[in-house]
Automatic annotation (TrEMBL):
Transmembrane segments: 30-48, 60-82, 102-119, 131-152, 266-285, 306-324, 344-364, 371-396, 402-424, 436-458, 470-488
Protein name according to UniProt: Flippase
Superkingdom field: Bacteria
GO cellular component: plasma membrane
Amino acid sequence: MNSSSSPSAEADDGARANEVRGAVRSTLQLGGSLMVTYAIALGIRALMPRYLGPEAFGYFNWSEAFAATFFVATNLGLETYIRKEVPVRPDHASDFFGTTMLLRLAMTLVLMVALALVLHHTGEPPEVQHLVQWFAVAQSLIVVNASMAALLHSKGKVAGLSVSNVITKIVWGGGLALMAAFGVGLQWLAVPMVLSEAVKLIISWKLAKEHLNLKFRIDLTETKKVMKACLPFFLTAAALACNGRTDMSLLGKLASKEEVGWYGGAFSIAGLTFLISPIFGWVLMPMMSRAAARSPQELSHLTRRSLEGVLAFTVPVMMAMVLGADLWVRIMCGPGFEPAALPLRVLSPIFVMAYVTMVSSIWLTMSNKEWWVTLAATMGAVVNPLLNLALIPWLYGRIGPSGGATATAMSMFLTEVIVTVLFLSRMGRNSFDRRSLVMVAKTAVVCGVCVVLDRVLLGAGMAPWPRLGLTATTYVVGVLGTGAVRPAELLQVVRMARQRGGNGGAPAEVAVPAAPTA
């Protein structure tokens, strides 16, 4: 009898089918909660500038960013370690959880004292010092909650966590709205975040005890091993945090605060494209961890198909942002931000590359090449400020308005190109196969046709909405007609989403392709 039809092979296929169904359900559950929480966050972000005014709102954002940067060390790299190891050995969580909690508590106490001293010697206003300290408390809870969430994601138990995300975001948003209604001072505006994160910690702890039988115990020997394994993940997180904080500071020093405003407007629009990025750590990483435990071939197969899905989603969004940049800036930012359109166009391709590097970094981590991820992240943290130092003075003097903002966007773009090339070169054939490359080629041709069509319609004086609609229709027809995107496979995902795992549903109803053999 052929081995592919043996009971053992059928059981493996059934297990993979159930796992994929579970991943799809988790994605939909978490995605639904993300939609709700993002809607609340957008509403609050629209409220706060109007309540505080430009200067106070600037202090509010600066305080949150400063506290987050100060507490980078408490990350410990633990989230990535959990998503790599706990999916295949859930009991391991109790080996390090208690000790790392105490370690983080000790670090938090030391950092709070250091933070108070720094704020005092820098001469910040008292209300700002209090605000930063409240944000610091919130940040310490956020770091712990991220680890708790990683444990639940690794186990695939996300229904309760999805509800928790919505509840805590309502606590945060409702608290800020009430404070704005009663005219509460600036120094107290981080309190709702502290309360919401405290509520989330209580719920997450109960869920972790229920689903993982998590125990609070002290095991110094095992924790030392975990901390050693976490080192590359910690350095990667620290490098990414530093990389994300330097560009605006340099732009403000080398150009003007107005350029910072235009760049900030462009970046805020581009940032909306990362709505689904948490799904990668929440769902895809645990799934790839289990695939890696079975075989390297299955991991590579899942990675290639994931990259195809990433491109199918991100490329049309990128095209919409590039071709409609002027319209999106006018809608989202209002008058005075017109120069932000050019930086937005430069930033848009980063969206595609960032998602590719997310998938690639997961493959590298699961293949025990996490130091390569650290190397690439560190290189990016060095290259990006150097590019800013070189490009901002040059373009600021040549382009005029938005020259500095465009230089900063270009620096980020070039940095992302370098990191993406490093990742894909290290992965080799594990990233793309012939099927993937054909998809990329077909998609590139369709994008080229859409750009030409858009320029022709723009020259003919067509209004923005009809022009974008016609171009979008051309894109959809093009990718479907050339087979770059396959509707049958998208329908298969929908069918998987409607399945109910764990109730005896026949896994054979969902065809999950076996991983190719070496």
